[in-house]
Amino acid sequence: MADFRTPLGRVYGLGSAKDGTGHFIRQRVSAVAMAVLAIWFVVSMIGLAGAGHAEATAWLARPVNAIPMLLLVIAAFYHARLGLQVVIEDYVHGEAAKMSLLMLVTFATFGLGVACVFSILKVALGA
């Protein structure tokens, strides 16, 4: 079988990470999900224009609204994590800094996502 790597790639033993296509597809799928859910969210917020706190919490307490809101939050934080990963991998060159930032982004997006999910569930379940 032919070796299609560049001479420098052969010297360093570097090749494909075998993850680029999957990452690309996950980012596009999450973007499509967010686009659909963002349209729903904007239309819903226009419908709630001028409503008070009681009306907004009653709106979020309905499962037909709480579930898409949860999906929007999950998709947004997942998409953000994927996008930030690409930026860090492309523009941070030190391995220690790169790994530290990737861990920080992962923990931050997960933590903030869990906080948002908890908040939505608290309002939706009336706790």
TrEMBL record:
Membrane-spanning segments: 31-54, 60-80, 101-121
One CC-aspect GO term: membrane
Membrane topology listed for this record: Multi-pass membrane protein
Location relative to the cell: Membrane
Pfam family, one: Sdh_cyt
Cofactor: heme
Descriptive protein name: Succinate dehydrogenase hydrophobic membrane anchor subunit
Record CDD domains: SQR_TypeC_SdhD_like
Chief location bin: membrane
Keywords from the named record: Electron transport, Heme, Iron, Membrane, Metal-binding, Transmembrane, Transmembrane helix, Transport, Tricarboxylic acid cycle
SUBUNIT field: Part of an enzyme complex containing four subunits: a flavoprotein, an iron-sulfur protein, plus two membrane-anchoring proteins, SdhC and SdhD.
Pathway: Carbohydrate metabolism; tricarboxylic acid cycle
Organism in which the protein naturally occurs: Futiania mangrovi
